[in-house]
Specification:
By secondary structure, this protein is mainly β. The chain is built from 1 helix and 82 strands. The protein starts with 5 loop residues before the first strand and ends in a 12-residue tail after the last strand.
Length: 1013
């Protein structure tokens, strides 16, 4: 019986479906739908292309954003695009980092020293000095990821100095001075069996433990541990020995016959076999020397002097090396004296080449010491420095040029280190080091008896991690500045790239009464001279928009007037600011005075002739001569009336703008949210450590919800993301005094989904869309979570690198690490995809999507263009398996027809696969002949449009070579041929496809070879 032919229309009204079994995808859905747009229902048309913008300046860039409407690229530098000049301008260096810290050791004892090594299997071995009733030397092994203790703190019973630890092959090797005279020993812990520990073994019985740090250092190079140490032969010497991967000790090389106090060692890995650079210091002669050895410890360059200190001492030393150049970093210390040019603590460096002259001394950072050994990443040397004041000890990551890239333990560091430096383990792009921090802070000022200025601070140990990456950077524009998260929170004002606020406020403000000169009353209230006056000082800096940034004020210093004179003056000494990226000599030092007769802090430094910071001196001296009556009416201290003081933003991992405030997630404590004071006109963003909210990492039966990973705003709610949980907060927050705070507690939304990817978060009319580890979801405006990414589930293993809602369309575009772009139309609730190079980031610039790819090329969407740079944009459509008679029914398919419109020269390749075999067995090339040349360009004038040419209708019939089948699959792919002689254009549109079929039976005929039973 003849089959009756019937059409099966396939309308193009639906999108991609990668969730459903390809054999069962419904008609109208597609396995692939590339470079199409859904601007009209049922019509596929080509997306716009992306035109190239000028090349970026030298550097590495991976993130695009906008500032004040202008395009901005971030990476190792910040570059701003000038539309007028059509070129990029470099605005400054960025040390892009993502930091964390986690507790390693915290108990009722104090820790005075620590060192750490990391294994490739994810274990951390920490050795430290424990000070309780007795001083002991211990080690502990911790799981790096979970902080679970694998080996409890264990004593090194024979230690007599600072221990150090190294990762060598399958061992943690702990080196320490023994209680036995002149003996340096080691123990080895098997990494795969951490309870297995060797007995203490001698490395040398000629060790001189004269330095407070323990005068030895080590480095692992090519699976060999090289150890340099102070020897005791012939009045002192420097020695280097080695330990192989099998714990076999090599010979010892002896040189520099003179006492050695400090030792630093580095290795040059760029020379094939490593070369060893050793630097030493003699505290008696004040001379520093260095030596270069090959991997067999033969001398390449004999000991050579690199430093002679005319005064002070060298207190710490560390070395890096690459390309036959070593670099020694050393900390020098002098007396802190106001009003002199003498430097206090400073970190300096010198280049120490394998051959040739020693480089000149470079003072990298004044007012700073070393807190960890120097290391190299991406051809740059870094070290962790310490700002060692009593009031705000803090650690900073600093590069060889003095740029600050991260800060740790603000106000909770251990100050200057006298017991040795922590090693830095570099694994990939992440550096690991240990540091001392105040894990218990107790006030000790007494209400009766003598008052003590300070706090009791008990020290513990943390593991710090520094990941050199821009992949987690988040930006937010508010208060006239573009703010960027990272190891420090950056602020860009269009001109300068600096830290947000100030890292530090003035320390150690001191004042001296001068009975000669000046109009200040010795007894301002007629009777009191004890603490008659108080002074406080702060740093002040104006950005390019005129916003005034202020540090916290210093602790007020009281002045007691002396002498018989009725009037006088006060000399106020204020330390200069050096830990900043702000133009150092553009920072003002502003001083305020209070008196018993006039109890308001008024400014005493001049407004018209400001007192400026001097980066090359320890402090400035300002002489105050003004009577109380002369300063009344001057500016008052901004904290007057209980206004909370400004503290620089912390290292941050997430940011968003919510209700005129900038919100940050603290990178070190990722359960803590900071929020700024309300930002009003002509004021910058101002943070305080008093304005924070804590979000507990656990919640009732839900268990641990993990750290905060992202922040966003929706309507009247702040949305807080964790990996697998969502929270919200409402309210307007406190006033400038920190009072009247109506922010709610964090309210739990869901533990079904969350995100670890802030770059995937995008706001739409329906709510916030984000990528979770379960795909792409939406948090609707009524706080429900809905899985909207099922259709593109095949892309779940890839990371969203940016997400944008495109103006003038109903599209949300997600650029993916795979190189694809997922496009969601929130009107049609459908998905389709774009093909692209691997886009690292994108933003809206001039209301158009602008992208940067993995090659650093910047492109911008261009309406009416169909080129991505120079590459033609072409469409591709692939159906699921079309089985009209059911999954295993039997059908006869005669031909298919295509209906569309011709727009520009193109070819179509129609490929057909049969019976669930993914390989095409039929492929047909279609060459449309609708092309109309330029007016008058046709051979027969008037033969083409608009004078009766072929028009724009594109309609084709494709016969099927295998008509009897279970199912067919159709792929339509556009091809652009350069021989057309015209630029790639819009090509064509498709309105639908018809399949002409006849159903033969209800089941298929299966060949005997595939039949069983």
């Amino acid at each position: 019986m003849a089959l009756q032919k019937q059409p099966v229309p396939i309308n193009f009204a639906l999108g991609v479906d990668t969730k459903t079994d390809p054999k069962q995808i419904s008609l109208g859905r597609f396995l692939e739908l590339k470079n199409c747009n859904f601007s009209k229902a049922g019509l596929f048309q080509k997306r716009n292309g992306f035109a190239s913008l000028p090349a970026l300046p030298s550097g590495t860039y991976s993130y695009l954003t906008t500032y004040n409407g202008g395009l901005t690229a971030l990476g190792t530098s910040l570059a701003s695009y000038s539309t007028g000049a059509q070129q990029w301008v470099n605005k400054g260096t960025i040390t892009a980092t993502d930091i964390t810290s986690a507790a390693l050791v915290s108990n009722n004892a104090n820790q005075q020293q620590c060192d750490v090594a990391i294994s490739s299997t994810g274990l951390t071995c920490c050795v430290y000095t424990d000070v309780g009733t007795t001083t002991t030397y211990k080690y502990t092994i911790v799981d790096t990821a979970t902080q679970q203790v694998v080996v409890a703190p264990t004593s090194i019973s024979t230690a007599n100095g600072t221990p150090r630890v190294f990762t060598l092959n399958n061992y943690f090797v702990i080196v320490f001075p023994s209680t036995a005279a002149n003996t340096l020993q080691y123990i080895a812990i098997t990494i795969t069996a951490p309870a297995t520990v060797t007995v203490a073994t001698n490395l040398s019985t000629n060790y001189s433990n004269s330095g407070a740090q323990g005068a030895f250092d080590g480095i692992v190079a090519n699976n060999v541990l090289y150890i340099a140490f102070a020897g005791n032969g012939g009045g002192g010497d420097l020695r280097v020995t080695s330990l192989s991967a099998t714990l076999t000790q090599g010979g010892t090389t002896v040189f520099a016959v003179e006492p050695t106090t400090l030792v630093g060692i580095g290795a040059d890995f760029t020379t094939g076999t490593p070369e060893i650079y050793v630097a030493k210091y003699n505290s008696a002669s004040l001379i520093g020397k260095w030596v270069v050895l090959d991997n067999n410890l033969s001398i390449i360059r004999a000991p050579t002097q690199f430093e002679f200190l005319a005064a002070g001492q060298m207190t710490n030393i560390t070395v890096t090396a690459a390309n036959q150049l070593g670099k020694v970093f050393y900390e020098t210390t002098g007396a802190f004296t106001y009003g002199t040019l003498a430097q206090t603590d400073a970190v300096n460096s010198r280049v120490i080449p394998r051959a040739g002259a020693v480089g000149g001394k470079v003072v990298i950072k004044l007012g700073c010491g070393l807190a960890a050994k120097a290391f190299r990443y991406n051809n740059t040397s870094y070290f962790v420095g310490t700002y060692g004041s009593n009031n705000q000890p803090t650690y900073f990551l600093i590069d060889e040029n003095g740029n600050i890239g991260a800060k740790f333990a603000y106000q909770n560091g251990a100050g200057y280190l006298t017991k040795g430096l922590s090693s830095v383990s570099m694994i990939g792009s992440t550096a690991y080091f240990s540091f001392l921090y105040k894990d218990l802070v107790v006030p000790v000022n007494k209400t009766r008896g003598a008052s003590v200025n300070g706090v009791y601070a008990q020290l513990g140990i943390k593991l710090g991690t520094i990941n050199f990456t821009t992949s987690n950077m988040v930006t937010s524009e508010v208060g006239g500045n573009l703010h960027m998260t990272g190891g420090i929170t950056y602020a860009f004002d269009g001109s300068s790239l600096v830290e947000q606020g100030f890292h530090l406020y003035p320390d150690y403000v001191e004042c001296v009464w001068n009975a000669l000169g000046g109009s200040m009353a010795a007894k301002p209230d007629g009777a009191t001279n004890t603490n008659a006056y108080y002074y406080t000082a702060l740093y002040e800096w104006a950005d390019n928009n005129g916003n005034i940034f202020r540090s916290a004020p210093s602790i007020p210093f009281g002045v007691t007037t002396t002498g018989a004179a009725s009037t006088g003056s006060v000399v106020v000494n204020v330390p200069c600011m050096r830990m900043t990226a702000k133009t150092l000599n553009a920072i003002k030092i502003v001083i305020y005075r209070w008196s018993v007769a006039q109890q308001t802090f008024y400014q005493v430094t001049s407004i018209s002739a400001p007192t400026f910071n001097d980066p090359f001196t320890d402090s400035i001296a300002f002489t105050d001569t003004l009577a109380d009556a002369s300063i009344v009416g001057n500016s008052i201290l901004y904290t007057t009336g209980g206004v909370v003081e400004d503290i620089g933003a912390p290292a941050s991992c997430a940011a968003t703008l919510f209700k005129t405030r900038l919100f940050l997630a603290d990178a070190e404590d990722r359960n803590l949210v900071w929020f700024s004071k309300p930002v009003i006109e002509n004021t910058p963003v101002e943070f305080s450590d008093l304005l924070t909210r804590y979000l507990a990492p656990t919640i009732s039966a839900q268990g641990n919800t993990g750290p905060i990973t992202a922040l966003s705003a929706m309507d009247d709610k702040l949305i807080v993301f964790k990996k697998n949980a969502l929270y919200y907060m409402t309210g307007n927050g406190p006033d400038l005094t920190g009072l009247n705070d109506d922010f709610s507690e964090f309210v739990f939304i869901s533990s079904t989904v969350g995100t670890t990817n802030p770059k995937s978060i995008v706001f739409t009319p329906d709510g916030i869309i984000f990528q979770s580890d379960k795909g792409i979801w939406i948090l609707t405006r009524d706080l429900n979570t809905v899985y909207i990414g099922a259709a593109v589930e095949a892309y779940n293993s890839y990371t969203v690198t940016s997400a944008l809602t495109i103006p003038g369309t109903n599209q949300v575009r997600f650029t993916m690490s795979s190189g694809d772009v997922l496009v969601y139309d929130y009107f049609f609730k459908q998905w389709f995809t774009y093909t692209a190079t691997a886009i690292q980031s994108s933003c809206l610039f001039q209301n158009l999507q602008t992208t940067i790819d993995s090659f650093g090329a910047v492109l911008q969407e261009l309406s009416g263009s169909y080129l991505d740079g120079s590459r033609p944009v072409t469409m591709k459509i692939k159906t699921g398996w079309i089985n009209i008679a059911g999954l295993q029914g039997f059908q006869r398919a005669y031909f298919l027809t295509l209906l569309g419109s011709y727009l520009s020269p193109h070819k179509l390749i129609v490929s057909i696969a049969y019976d669930y075999n993914d390989s095409f067995t039929q492929s047909t090339v279609i060459n449309p002949d609708n092309y109309t040349p330029n007016y008058g360009g046709d051979s027969l004038y008037g033969g083409t449009s608009p004078f009766g040419g072929p028009g724009t209708l594109e309609q084709w019939r494709v016969f099927l070579q295998t008509q009897k089948c279970q199912a067919i699959q159709v792929t339509i792919e556009e091809v652009y041929d350069p021989s057309y002689g015209v630029a790639a254009g819009a090509g064509f549109t498709l309105s639908g496809m018809n399949l002409i079929v006849g159903v033969k039976g209800v089941y298929p005929r299966i060949k005997a070879a595939n039949s069983v039973g």
